[in-house]
Specification:
The protein has helices at 47-65, 107-114, 119-126, 135-145, 149-154, 163-171, 181-184, 199-204, 227-230, 242-249, 307-317, 326-331, 370-396, 413-423, 435-447, 454-458, 473-490; strands at residues 3-9, 13-19, 25-32, 44-45, 72-79, 85-88, 98-99, 158-161, 178-179, 214-215, 219-225, 234-241, 258-262, 266-273, 284-287, 297-303, 340-342, 360-362, 402-406, 426-430, 463-467. It is α/β, with parallel strands linked by helices. The strands form 6 sheets. A 7-stranded mixed beta sheet has the order 15-16-14-13-19-20-21, sandwiched between helices. Strands 3-2-1-5-12-11 form a 6-stranded mixed beta sheet, with helices on both faces. A two-stranded antiparallel sheet has the order 4-7. Helix 13 crosses helix 14 (413-423). Bound molecules: adenosine-5'-diphosphate.
């Protein structure tokens, strides 16, 4: 028997998973690592701890499955995106902590850049809204603030990578410095159309080109893990950022297919095929993880607070004991009695992009109860997703066929049914909701002939449950109008 190994390096934990020839997960282990918050809005991690956590969880996965490294045909890698690591190419030592995607330390720099004459050109080239979220300003920060870093970078001694690149560098014993277009498109340094690093953007952020990894296809052999790491030489054959990997894991290989991940926040991606999308509705344009050498694209929208609003009910308001309990409580009332909750705790993400908005609960009456607030909170996740889907449909000019879902909060059947109702679209929950690791495995398996075709992989995808819209259109639109009024009230500007 042979297997594909997926390394799924997330924001809070590293996981490893093994898949057999039928695409069935045979083992999965995970290990958390530490985030540090040294100043307000800063988020850092130790790149060496990330690597050790990934290695440890990978070895434990192999031993849990009782298989040796020789049984692994290929490795696929997926990772938290944008998070920035800079290290010395000779010693392999990081020169600074990893700056995590959530870190806001370069916000002032990015605000100034967004107000500058270059802003429109940067967005046109990269498909991104200028923000501290992306890697470019984070690399610039390290070169500016770490003693001697700029000189070392100019001498060609330092390398940059997102976490995919950092893991591959370590897996290959420092022989391979590579990334893929789905990760590179989140740095604000790649020309989205050409798929190459952009010389003007590198010079704008003052980053020497010698630091940058080679951009290889997402599904291709890019190197070999050293025998001394896992016990045998294994080809590394798939790379994708986590959200694009989930798109692959949901078998969204063609234009018009979309997925939404319901975790802490929501990330919706719509595959748009080989033509580069230009969003007129404040979504991001990004590279999908292509299974061929051909460039493929997606539009992406993110909601900052989704499942996290349920955690807020539990931890701050104390009206829930567990997140799962929210389903029964929401079902205990027939509706929200006119209550809306807008969880703009950290502002609003796409398509509003309003950092100054703050959370509100509206429509309270003497009869409003905790159950109404719980229900309104779950509904807010579905309304925010509709805001994204409306923007996607306006961009693509076509109605969404169905929405494939994954992430922890998709366990909530009330939320899934309400999502179908408020979108007026079918919601499809697959059997395997670990879509990120699965996507990385598909990319590696397709590159090495472990799976023969995209069609073969598509045939693995199984629906666990579909939710059909059941609300009359008039009611749906009335409810959504109420949501829009509540959103308008939570915006300070
Ligand atoms: P992440 O990967 O972002 O950490 P997960 O995919 O693990 O998130 O999902 C966890 C999130 O989903 C939490 O914010 C939690 O509040 C929410 N959640 C988990 N189960 C439920 C549920 N049954 N109903 C509603 N929300 C849930």
């Amino acid at each position: 028997m042979s297997y594909i190994l997926a390394l799924d390096e997330g924001t809070t934990s590293a996981r490893a998973a093994l898949y057999d020839a039928q695409g069935v997960r045979r083992a999965m282990e995970s290990r958390e690592f530490t985030s540090r918050f040294p100043q307000t809005g800063w988020v850092e991690q130790d790149p060496l701890e990330i690597w050790r956590a990934q290695l440890d969880t990978t070895r434990r996965t192999l031993s849990a499955a009782g298989i040796g490294a020789r049984s692994i045909t290929a490795i696929g890698i997926t990772n938290q995106r944008e998070t920035t690591v800079v290290w010395d190419r000779h010693s392999g030592q990081p020169v600074a902590p990893a700056i995590v995607w959530q870190c806001r330390r370069t916000a002032a720099f990015c605000q100034a850049l967004a107000a500058s004459p270059q802003a429109a050109n940067i967005t046109a080239k990269t498909g991104l809204v200028i923000d501290a979220y992306f890697s470019g300003s984070k690399i610039g920060w390290i070169l500016e603030h770490v003693d001697g870093a700029r000189q070392r970078a100019q001498n060609g001694d330092l390398l940059f990578g997102n976490v995919d690149t950092w893991l591959i560098w370590n897996l290959t014993g420092g022989r391979v410095h590579v990334t893929d277009p789905s990760n590179a498109s989140r740095t604000m340094l790649m020309n989205l159309a050409s798929g190459d690093w952009d010389a003007d953007l590198l010079s704008l952020f003052q980053i020497p080109a010698s630091m940058m990894p080679r951009i290889a296809p997402s599904s291709a052999v890019v190197g070999t893990a050293s025998a001394d790491v896992l016990g045998a030489e294994i080809p590394i054959a798939g790379i994708a950022g986590d959200q694009q990997a989930a798109l692959v894991g949901q078998a969204c290989f063609h234009a018009g297919l979309s997925k939404n991940t319901y975790g802490t926040g929501c990330f919706a991606l719509l595959h748009t095929g080989p033509a580069m999308p230009v969003s007129r509705n404040r979504l991001l344009s990004t590279r999908a993880a292509s299974t061929s050498a051909r460039a493929e694209f997606a539009v992406e929208g993110s909601v900052f607070v989704a499942g996290a609003a349920v955690q807020w009910l539990r931890d701050q308001l104390g009206i829930l004991k567990t997140a799962a309990e929210s389903e029964a409580i929401a079902n205990s009332v027939p509706d929200t009695a006119g209550v809306y909750m807008v969880p703009a705790f950290v502002g609003l993400g796409a398509p509003h992009w309003d950092a100054s908005a703050r959370g509100i609960i509206t429509g309270l009456t003497r009869g409003a109860s905790a159950a109404h607030i719980v229900r309104a909170t779950l509904e807010s996740i579905a309304y925010q997703t509709r805001d994204l889907v409306e923007a996607m449909e306006a961009d693509s000019g076509e109605p969404l066929r169905e929405l494939r879902v994954d992430g922890g909060a998709t366990a909530n059947n009330f939320l899934m049914q309400f999502q179908a109702d408020i979108l007026g679209r079918r919601i499809v929950r697959p059997a395997d909701i670990e879509t990120t690791a699965l996507g990385a495995a598909y990319l590696a398996g397709l590159a090495t002939g472990f799976w023969k075709s995209v069609e073969e992989v598509e045939s693995f995808w199984r629906i666990e449950r579909a939710f059909e819209p059941a609300l009359a259109e008039q009611e749906r639109e009335d409810l959504y109008r109420g949501w829009k009024r509540a959103v308008a009230r939570c915006r300070l500007a």
